Amino acid sequence: MVYAKLNQFLGRMTGDEKHTASATSTLDVIWILYDRILNISPTSTDDPRRDRFLLSKGHGPMAYYAVLCAKGFFPESWLDSFGALHSPLGQHPDRTLIPGVEISSGSLGHGLPIALGLALALNASNNPSSVYVLLGDGELDEGSNHEAIALAGRLKPASLTAIVIDNNSAAHGWPGGIAGRFEVEGWHASTIDGRDHEAITNALSSHPIGPKVVVAQTQAKYS
Ligand SMILES: Cc1ncc(C[n+]2csc(CCOP(=O)(O)OP(=O)(O)O)c2C)c(N)n1
């Protein structure tokens, strides 16, 4: 299944148009994760040694669903039921209904704390799996993120990567840039074009010692 198919899949999920830009801002990063980075497949969703991807920014999950569908986690026919009462594909992802979804999300500010705890637990059990968590720049306003950023900088879990989709929607902005908020706590940081597949691949492929953040800049509207 190729990237070009994703826009066709997005077009089949209607009824949450106010979150279209929220969804499409994540499309390229989530695609690259599932196509090139993550050690996860539809047959390994319960494997303790799978990589974990946590979508913290749970509103507007259409891009996430499009990628999961393209990679065979659930049948294409589900796309047309998006948002319907008995559909597994709700307007916020539900981990009990969708194969491969690691956390139910939509209430912002939970993904990074969960990812940190997960990375520490994996380290403690000598499990080499990697943990990736995707947040929004507006979501970073939630204070729980700042506790997790500080704690991760102190405890330095191996294989924790945060990706912040920066579509310039944070209420107060980030003077000096988002990367600096992480670097001051000891994280490795890079800022890239969130539509550039090679840049995304390179940024996600490096494995520094300690936590890493990739700030992926996108435009609010997909074009
Ligand atoms: C705890 C919590 N507070 C408020 C909201 C309402 N809310 C939904 S989307 C959003 C903005 C999120 O901005 P960002 O993370 O940058 O994502 P974007 O939609 O810009 O892609 C807010 C505040 C929420 N979902 N959860």
Description:
- With about 220 residues, the chain is an alpha/beta fold.
- The chain has a single domain (about 5-215), classed as Thiamin diphosphate (ThDP)-binding fold, Pyr/PP domains (Rossmann fold), CATH 3.40.50.970.
- About 35% of the residues lie in helices and about 15% in strands.
- It contains eight helices and five strands.
- The protein has a five-stranded parallel β-sheet, sandwiched between helices.
- Helix 8 (about 195-205) links the parallel strand 4 and strand 5 (about 210-215).
- Helix 1 (about 5-10) packs across helix 4 (about 60-70), helix 3 (about 25-35) packs across helix 8 (about 195-205) and helix 5 (about 110-125) packs parallel to helix 6 (about 145-155).
- Bound molecules: thiamine diphosphate.
- Thiamine diphosphate binds next to loops.
SSE diagram, text form:
Elements: H1 5-12, H2 20-24, H3 27-37, E1 52-55, H4 62-70, H5 111-124, E2 131-136, H6 143-155, E3 160-166, H7 178-183, E4 188-193, H8 197-205, E5 212-217
Bound molecules: thiamine diphosphate.
Q: How many β-strand runs?
A: 5
Sum up the overall morphology in one term: globular
Tally of separate helices? 8
Radius of gyration, CA atoms, in whole angstroms: 16 Å
Strand order of the largest sheet: 1-2-3-5-4
Helical amount: 25-40%
